[in-house]
Amino acid sequence: MDRSSEALEFARHAWDFYDAARGAERLLGERDEYQLGASLPVACLFGTAMELALKAYLLSRRESLSDAADRGHDMARHFHDASKLGLGNLVRITVGDGQLIAALSQLCAMPPAQYVALPADTIPDFASMRKLCDTLVDVACAMAGYERPVYD
Hints:
Layout: H1 3-28, H2 40-60, H3 65-70, H4 75-84, H5 87-90, H6 95-109, H7 126-143
Helix pairs in contact: 1-2, 1-7, 2-4, 2-6, 2-7
């Protein structure tokens, strides 16, 4: 598979994880314990969506798949490198967004067995995650050449 096709596949999967995060939040948001904050599964789904979108962007800018894989789940590094390749001119990241990227990066890299020890305030709030994810996934995937299908 060539880099262009790889980038499109990463972008497609980014949108799939984004949609899964939104669906999970709607379902889990009905539970009393999640009325004030997001759930861990939703945070991980949003984090994965952003990571895949950033990788799609990097692949579309001629980065190799092995280079993208070498960064692992370090979204801060993915965003930094994508910014150097032009994404930073299209997406403005605040200090708070940078902290959110770092927090989601840690959550996505964490082995599931460690989830039980997470303090509740470790999970970012839903509105912040959704806003950042909306922007990153939309812009990075579009720049990678992915046209998201519109469903009725």
